[in-house]
Structure to design on (256 residues):
């Protein structure tokens, strides 16, 4: 079934493949499960892969959440509903924050993390939030300009615009506030599972230093930096991101 029934409402979850441990891919602020869509084809041939729409996003019921810890609780509830005991959590941007928070909340259930274009602290420039609050369409244009590298195609940018504009603007604003409040730098030492960190060398929103910081402070981590890539790595570089995750997964979990 594509929908999971939770007390708060229905959560849409796209799924593909079979195998263990499963990988749950979490989209970013204002995003949709489709942002991971191209990567699903790669990972779905490797293991059971799941792409949820967070509350208030895509095909999932509103409202969205206002804190990263609340989104983390939803992911844990989805895992419960689908009888997923131990998983790999892959998160892009805000999704990475949710993945990290979940690893801290339920370390026994998280066998590994894939952190894509994210950080241990996610400060959001006030101009993005102010622009969204003043004129949502202009705010989204401003964010998309910053989210993609100069190497992104027009089709990639249009994909981002369509997804962001399908969302209730207040949900996107709440997501950005949740990101701005997120800071687990002092708790990174508690994360002991294997971690793959993937960053874009041209990322303006989660700049390369964020990825390097994670790698330096997560004892069991590997780092992949992609050239000519901005913040929207799953859309800009799906083949490279998918290949990096698959290689890391096969090396660590294929015989698990």
């Amino acid at each position: 079934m594509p929908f999971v029934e939770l007390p708060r409402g229905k959560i849409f979850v796209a799924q593909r493949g079979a195998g263990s441990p499963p990988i749950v891919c979490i989209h970013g602020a204002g995003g949709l499960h489709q942002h991971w869509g191209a990567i699903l084809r790669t990972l779905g041939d490797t293991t059971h892969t799941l792409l949820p729409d967070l509350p208030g996003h895509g095909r999932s019921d509103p409202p969205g959440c206002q804190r990263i810890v609340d989104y983390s609780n939803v992911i844990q509830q989805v895992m419960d509903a689908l009888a997923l005991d131990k998983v790999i959590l892959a998160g892009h941007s805000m999704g990475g924050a949710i993945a990290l928070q979940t690893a801290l909340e339920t370390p026994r259930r998280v066998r590994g993390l894939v952190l894509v274009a994210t950080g241990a602290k996610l400060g959001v420039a006030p101009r993005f939030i102010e622009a969204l609050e003043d004129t949502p369409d202009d705010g989204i244009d401003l964010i998309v300009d910053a989210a993609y590298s100069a190497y992104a195609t027009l089709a990639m940018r249009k994909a981002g615009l369509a997804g962001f504009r399908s969302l209730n603007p207040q949900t996107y604003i709440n997501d950005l506030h949740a990101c701005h409040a997120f800071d687990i730098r002092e708790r990174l030492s508690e994360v002991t599972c294997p971690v793959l960190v993937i960053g874009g060398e041209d990322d303006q929103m989660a700049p390369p230093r964020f990825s390097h910081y994670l790698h330096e402070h997560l004892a069991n981590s590997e780092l992949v930096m992609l050239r000519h890539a901005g913040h929207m790595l799953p859309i800009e570089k799906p083949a490279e991101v998918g290949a990096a995750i698959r290689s890391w997964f096969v090396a660590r979990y294929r015989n698990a």
